[in-house]
Design goal:
The protein is of the alpha+beta class and 212 residues long. It is built from 5 helices and 5 strands; from the N terminus they run αααββαββαβ.
Length: 212
């Protein structure tokens, strides 16, 4: 008679990417990593488009009214008079210029930066496929792997684009031993994330505080 097998666990560790092997086993060369994902910037683009649309509609209506021999809007005449009478060093003129310049600089920065800082680009196993991993998911993977190390009591991970800060509390074993095991486990975990630019590891191990 065969002994009864224990029930299988409902959870299992997810497979990770390997630099040296394809899913079938033989070695393979992966393409170079891709850059960051670019944001669509829908909200800023929508705000600018609505502002331009509203301004153009108002000006077109005013111009059409003048062409139809009707009086121009009071605000346009008052604005033209104020711009003609106020000197360039006036406080309101300087404030308006500063706000306009800041808005223009903001739009230029949005146009030249990719955005989506929370999404980490992954290696491209195929030229036509792009994938990304959110920082929260990457941090959770590193935290789970660190908690598997003997002697680790608590882990806090802060994932950045170029570095992962791991704060560990160890309640037994030597700190040097725990740190060595963490370095090995976390290095393998970062490699398994499959990121195009693996972040550097910054691991800090300490004992619990007086109240911990």
């Amino acid at each position: 008679m065969s002994e009864p097998r224990p029930p299988e666990s409902p959870t299992r560790r997810l497979p990770v990417l390997d630099d040296d092997k394809t899913p079938d086993g033989p070695p393979a060369l992966l393409p170079e990593g891709s850059g960051r994902f670019w944001s669509a910037r829908r909200v800023p683009a929508g705000i600018v488009a609505l502002c331009l649309l509203a301004g153009a509609a108002v000006f077109l209506y005013d111009i059409a009214a003048v062409r139809a021999h009707r009086p121009a809007m009071h605000w346009r005449g008052a604005l033209a008079r104020q711009l003609a009478e106020r000197p360039l060093d006036n406080t309101w003129v300087l404030a308006g210029a500063g706000v306009t310049a800041a808005l223009g600089l903001w739009l230029i920065v949005l146009a030249l930066t990719p955005g989506l800082r929370d999404l980490l680009p992954m290696r491209r196993p195929h030229p036509d496929v792009r994938a990304g991993l959110r920082r929260e998911a990457a941090a959770q993977v590193l935290r789970d792997r660190a908690m598997e190390v003997s002697g680790v009591r608590a882990v806090r991970v802060r994932m950045r684009r170029k570095r992962a800060d791991i704060r560990v509390v160890s309640h037994f074993r030597g700190l040097d031993e725990v740190r060595a095991d963490l370095d090995a486990v976390l290095t393998e975990a970062v490699r398994g994330l499959g990121l195009s630019r693996p972040p550097a590891l910054s691991v800090h191990v300490r004992r619990p505080g007086p109240k911990g």
